[in-house]
Design brief:
The protein is mainly α and 173 residues long. The chain has one domain. 67% of the residues lie in helices and 0% in strands. The chain contains eight helices and no strands. Helix 7 (114-131) packs across helix 8. The chain is globular. InterPro entries: Imm5-like. Residues 21-134 form the Imm-5-like domain. It comes from Candidatus Ornithocaccomicrobium faecavium.
C-alpha cells in the first residue's frame, strides 16, 4: 500500500471544528499556535529519524522568533524557504510528513489556511509513527482523527476569546 502524504477527512467533525475555530482567530494567533504546536508535536518525530540534523530545528526557531517580533521578516521568509527545502530532502514517511508539517506550519504567517494544512501532514506523521508504515488505512484513519482532536483541543486552549481581527480564511477543500 502506498502511504498518503496527508491524513484526515475534510468533512470529519474534527476538521470542521478546527476550521470553524480558526475562523475566529487572527492571522498572528493562528501562526503562533501552528509553529508552537508543530514544535511540540512534530519536531520530536522528525528528530527521532534525524537526531543530528540542526538545520530544521534552527529554521523552526527562526520562524518562531520572527513571530515573537525578534527577527526581520526577511529572516522568516528565508527560514520558510529552508524548511521547504529540508522537507523535500527528507526521507522516510514519518520524518518526511513531520518535516512537511513543520514547513507548512511556519508558512501560516503568510497563508493563514496553512494553520489547518500542516495538521494533515502532522496527522500522517503521528499515524505512521504510532502504527508503523505497513498498516492499513483502517488503522491510520482513527490515529489521524485522534491527532486532529488533540490539535483542536490545543487550538481552543490557545485561542483568544473575542479576537478583534479574525483572519479571512477561504477553504479550498
Amino acid at each position: 500500500m502506498k502511504l498518503r502524504k496527508m491524513l484526515g477527512k475534510m468533512d470529519s467533525p474534527e476538521c470542521q471544528a478546527l476550521m470553524r475555530q480558526m475562523e475566529t482567530q487572527s492571522k498572528q494567533t493562528l501562526a503562533a499556535w501552528a509553529v508552537a504546536y508543530a514544535k511540540e508535536r512534530y519536531l520530536p518525530l522528525y528528530q527521532s529519524a534525524y537526531p543530528a540534523e540542526e538545520r530544521l530545528p534552527a529554521a523552526l526557531e527562526a520562524c518562531a522568533a520572527c513571530l515573537r517580533g525578534e527577527g526581520a521578516p526577511a529572516e522568516g521568509k528565508a527560514a520558510q524557504k529552508a524548511l521547504r527545502q529540508i522537507a523535500s530532502e527528507t526521507e522516510g514517511p514519518v520524518a518526511q510528513a513531520a518535516a512537511r508539517a513543520i514547513a507548512t506550519a511556519c508558512a501560516a504567517v503568510q497563508t493563514p489556511t496553512n494553520a489547518f494544512g500542516f495538521l494533515l501532514y502532522g496527522a500522517a506523521a503521528f499515524a505512521y509513527h504510532s502504527a508503523g508504515v505497513r498498516s492499513s488505512q483502517a488503522v491510520y484513519d482513527p490515529l489521524a482523527t485522534e491527532e486532529l482532536a488533540r490539535a483542536l483541543a490545543s487550538l481552543r486552549a490557545a485561542s483568544v476569546p473575542g479576537e478583534l481581527n479574525p483572519a479571512t480564511l477561504r477553504w479550498n477543500c
